[in-house]
Automatic annotation (TrEMBL), chain A:
Its EC number is 1.14.13.149. Gene3D superfamilies: Phenylacetic acid degradation B (3.10.20.520). This is 1,2-phenylacetyl-CoA epoxidase subunit B. It is an enzyme of class 1 (oxidoreductase). It comes from Aurantiacibacter sediminis. Keywords: Oxidoreductase.
UniProtKB/TrEMBL annotation, chain B:
SUPFAM superfamilies: Ferritin-like. Coiled coil: none annotated. It comes from Aurantiacibacter sediminis. The gene is paaC. This is Phenylacetate-CoA oxygenase subunit PaaC. PANTHER family: 1,2-PHENYLACETYL-COA EPOXIDASE, SUBUNIT C, PHENYLACETIC ACID DEGRADATION PROTEIN PAA.
Amino acid sequence: MSSDWPLWEVFVRARGGLDHRHVGSVHAPDAGIAIRHARDTYTRREEGVSLWVVRSNEITASDPSEAEEMFEPAASKIYRHPTFYDLPDEVKHM
Amino acid sequence: MDKALFEYLLRLGDDSLVLAQRLCEWSSRAPTLEVDLSLSNLGLDLVGQAQLLLGYAGEVEGQGRDEDRLAYHRDAEEYRNCLLVEQPNGDFAQTMARHFLFSIYRELLLDELVGSSDTRLAEIAAKAVKETRYHAELASDWVIRLGDGTEESHRRMQDGLDWFWRFVDEMFAVDEVERVLIERGIAVDPAVTREAFDARVTQVVKSATLEVKPSTWPQTGGRQGNHTEHLSTMLAEMQVLPRRYPEATW
């Protein structure tokens, strides 16, 4: 039964050169079968060329109740955006 | 008509079709949603292979029968699948034991058929072998997971292997039909792959802490149309719609 199996977070690389993106989760009894379940659940329509799975309980998440002090202070630091710098014309990829 | 080739294509195509139907019986009944999807995917791969093989069989026969006609309008005694694939699903471990034994046999066979002197068959084999390799890997993972799992999963997996082993020899048997095609370089002599089959199976079964117990009562007859009673019940369900409504389209 799925409730007996641990949950795994699934990440798919859509094609070479792109990052793996989180797409969802699957239940599976071990890592190998988690990859197979991820393949059959999330890449049946050519959505990817590579898969990662990681045990959901191995992920440490930020505490939602701390969101205020965690994220709001960034709001007033407009100088952290690089829009104020004059870039030389030779710099192509910024 | 090349009667031997027609027969051979029916054997290959019927193996795929009958096993596909069995796997799809798990739809909405599998232990988890993930397994449900997984088993249906395996089934659909096999439907695709059956379409190609039976479609080609119909062309070789030259009587105007296409793959649907062959699938839906033959009775059990006209089916040429091996007995292994028609056996009922049993529990999940039994389904995996069946899929494990069949997929390894089939992967090794298709690997050889890629070099068939019949180019059409060689092309079908080249497409099917990748899918089948995945089937064999997936089934091996499950045999290991269940065999080397809990006391109950171990017992069920061992029971599954014990039950299905009696149908293994039939997959490697050669009759006059195949002998002729082997000489023409069209079919594969399954004896060539038996050693590799035993080695692969033994390796997985060992790491699953299970054992292979040779069967004292091997079953054969499917290739000649002598099936167990399970096939006709399965076909009755599979064929009822097109037989009742021959003009139905969907």
